């Protein structure tokens, strides 16, 4: 008779084509440290990802523009030139050398951009809807340039950019790709009716608004197969001016339709939660809990999780893996620290975006404190003195 044990953060799990040894995932984290000009991944980036790789663990690389015009944050590495592929090869090789696995997140920011990042061209979006956000340019954080709505005959070229980016990601040695469909970026701008006022085949009912995200997903699956593609969504997200008149119906439809691809996972951003008591009181995670009944594959939950929250959502069966962001920035050996209850390094927000190795590759791995080491030395000395007597 087969014994079924309850999964934990540190029990093995199959995610699409990958067999992982634990369920602590590194979330995609924008760090803006690529080589400029050219948005080329660097040796420093390879060191950063290598530090955070673990045997049988999954990393999701930072959001990566699929084209020159898809950018919104100067310094983000791209996946649209041969030089970028060469740079990413160093990253994937370094992660694989540690026994880790790594997906690349494919990114088009849509309206969250500035003309300075695209040689003067206006950003593109689903519909022209007033939006007050910022982009990161050579002049720092600046208000976005007003976007223009994509003509319907332009959309296939954007889908093709995703297809080419998926191919380049394969050439760069990644283990798969994730479609960034959350946080108010281009697929999200098409999906939610607060930003999509179109009246053509990509607007109106949810079947039309979801078309862009589903076509992008199909493009990636045509390169990788479904079992090496993930999709990230943010059903509760209001960031970047997003809204939907019926988010439950919208994201239920998306989850249902994504089942056709046999995806590696669905990556769901939850609202920021405050401690495990939020889960116990049924306040969170609302999205994973709801979509678990609809999506047939593995679910990765993200959203400000602490270890207790992560253990609780896995035990409850509402997610299969948990993605950590800020804690992974400051703790390169985060899975080990969680597993053994070790103290975390604090993170420094001032070094999150841009800069050099400081706040990037200089966070220490866990080691016994000097106090512990001193205690161990004293114990050894005491034993030695007893032996001498």
Rg over C-alpha atoms, rounded to the nearest angstrom: 22 Å
Largest sheet: number of strands, sense, barrel closure:
8 strands, parallel
Ends apart, CA distance between termini: 58 Å
What order do the strands of the largest sheet run in, or round the barrel if closed?
A: 3-14-13-12-11-10-5-4
Shape: globular
Describe the model.
By secondary structure, the protein is α/β, with parallel strands linked by helices. It is 34% helix and 15% strand. It has helices at residues 43-52, 82-97, 155-171, 186-191, 206-209, 211-224, 247-258, 276-280, 286-291, 307-316, 326-330, 334-340, 370-388, and strands at residues 13-15, 18-20, 24-26, 58-65, 101-107, 124-125, 134-137, 140-143, 148-149, 176-180, 229-233, 265-269, 298-302, 321-324. The strands form four sheets. The chain has an eight-stranded parallel sheet. The protein has a two-stranded antiparallel ribbon with strand order 1-2. Helix 2 (82-97) links the parallel strand 4 (58-65) and strand 5 (101-107). The model is unreliable at 274-284 and 369-389 (pLDDT under 50).
Question: What would the keywords be for this entry?
Answer:
alpha/beta; 389 residues; 13 helices; 15% strand; 14 strands
């Amino acid at each position: 008779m087969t014994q079924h044990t309850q999964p934990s953060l540190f029990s093995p799990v199959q995610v699409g084509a990958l067999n992982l040894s634990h369920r602590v995932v590194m979330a995609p984290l924008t760090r803006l440290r690529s080589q400029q000009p050219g948005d080329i991944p660097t040796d420093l980036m390879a060191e950063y990802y290598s530090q955070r790789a673990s045997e049988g663990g999954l990393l999701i690389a930072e959001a990566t523009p699929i084209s020159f015009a898809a950018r919104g944050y100067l310094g983000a590495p791209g996946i649209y030139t041969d030089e970028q592929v060469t740079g990413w090869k160093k990253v994937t090789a370094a992660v694989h050398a540690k026994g880790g696995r790594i997906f690349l997140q494919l990114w088009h920011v849509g309206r969250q951009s500035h003309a300075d990042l695209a040689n003067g061209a206006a950003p593109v979006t689903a519909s022209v809807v007033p939006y007050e956000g910022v982009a990161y340019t050579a002049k720092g954080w600046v208000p976005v340039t007003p976007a223009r709505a994509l003509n319907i005959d332009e959309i296939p070229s954007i889908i093709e950019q995703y297809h080419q980016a998926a191919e380049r990601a394969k050439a760069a040695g990644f283990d798969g790709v994730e479609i960034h469909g959350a946080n108010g970026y281009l697929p999200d701008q098409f999906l939610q009716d607060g930003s999509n006022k179109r009246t053509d085949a990509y607007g109106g009912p949810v079947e039309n608004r979801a078309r862009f995200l589903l076509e992008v997903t199909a493009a990636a699956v045509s390169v990788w197969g479904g079992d090496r593609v993930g999709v990230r969504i943010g059903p509760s997200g209001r960031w970047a001016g997003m809204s939907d008149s019926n988010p439950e119906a919208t994201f239920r439809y998306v989850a249902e339709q994504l089942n056709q691809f046999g995806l590696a996972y669905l990556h769901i951003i939850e609202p920021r939660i405050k401690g495990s008591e939020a889960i116990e009181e049924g306040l969170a995670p609302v999205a994973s809990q709801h979509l678990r009944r609809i999506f047939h594959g593995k679910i990765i939950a993200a959203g400000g999780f602490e270890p207790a929250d992560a253990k609780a959502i896995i035990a409850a069966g509402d997610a299969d893996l948990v993605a950590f962001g800020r804690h992974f920035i400051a703790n390169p050996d985060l899975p080990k620290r969680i597993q053994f209850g070790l103290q975390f390094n604090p993170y420094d927000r001032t070094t999150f975006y841009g800069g050099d190795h400081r706040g990037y590759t200089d966070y220490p791995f866990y080691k016994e404190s000097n106090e512990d080491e001193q205690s161990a030395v004293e114990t050894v000395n005491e034993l030695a003195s007893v032996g001498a007597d």
